[in-house]
Amino acid sequence: xxxxxxxxxxxxxxxxxxxxxxxxxxxxxxxxxxxxxxxxxxxxxxxxxxxxxxxxxxxxxxxxxxxxxxxxxxxxxxxxxxxxxxxxxxxxxxxxxxxxxxxxxxxxxxxxxxxxxxxxxxxxxxxxxxxxxxxxxxxxxxxxxxxxxxxxxxxxxxxxxxxxxxxxxxxxxxxxxxxxxxxxxxxxxxxxxxxxxxxxxxxxxxxxxxxxxxxxxxxxxxxxxxxxxxxxxxxxxxxxxxxxxxxxxxxxxxxxxxxxxxxxxxxxxxxxxxxxxxxxxxxxxxxxxxxxxxxxxxxxxxxxxxxxxxxxxxxxxxxx
Length: 320
Ligand SMILES: [Zn+2]
What we know:
The chain is of the alpha/beta class. The chain has helices at 8-21, 32-42, 46-58, 67-81, 147-166, 194-201, 230-235, 237-249, 268-273, 301-317; strands at 86-95, 101-111, 118-124, 172-178, 212-217, 226-228, 256-260, 278-282. Helix 2 (32-42) crosses helix 10 (301-317) and helix 3 packs across helix 10. The chain is globular, with a radius of gyration of 18 Å.
């Protein structure tokens, strides 16, 4: 996604001082008690999610056109076929602005595929070919390992798939793994969000209209703070309200803050443009964003647990 400098760390430092005095959930939101209890309740396994972040990084950078990308895609399809009712693979070749031909795969895992009432969750599974935010220019040409940027969102969706395999949802659920999110230039909007654009033009059926959708991207930071992303608030405010109020009910109000965030170019944008009600849950305040340091040691099991619990609870609430 688009990288934008933020002064949030500075603001947070100030906020923490006042929060601690008021004995509100620990600063940065990692409330230990809710973190330990909600996992068992939702069936989302934070430890396994972190394990899956490591697994993805072990494939190597999932840069389209590489062997690591192909192997990771094959693994994802296999994992999902063991859990979902149907898996649809959208396969195509994308020609970049400079003429490279990239093999692309979107993977859509469906639960209760015949249901008209559905929820869509998505995450990108590719990783970025260059580290254009690396401070050392020598590192700028290295690919991003993508533990948090790519890996964390995929781990959330796989954990949701586990929970739905254990206990089927009461509505249809689609888990979409998009390809080519992070390939090109966000400055010029060239060759980025490739899979999301493709999905928007090749929906599973012509009347496809999920009740709501959530994109999970960069959700594993050890001090997660999700501001309400600009495109989401403008395009699907009722979904932001639904997700944030659910998180706050679970005790994660310090993580899912009511603060208004910036606009971030991410996979939800082409889907919003298509009329789908999809928002982005993202924490861009991650010092290793688009650097070779985006590795699994920067990803927190507790953070994955919080986000996974929210994701599963949103689905379970629909059956009440
Ligand atoms: Zn990225």
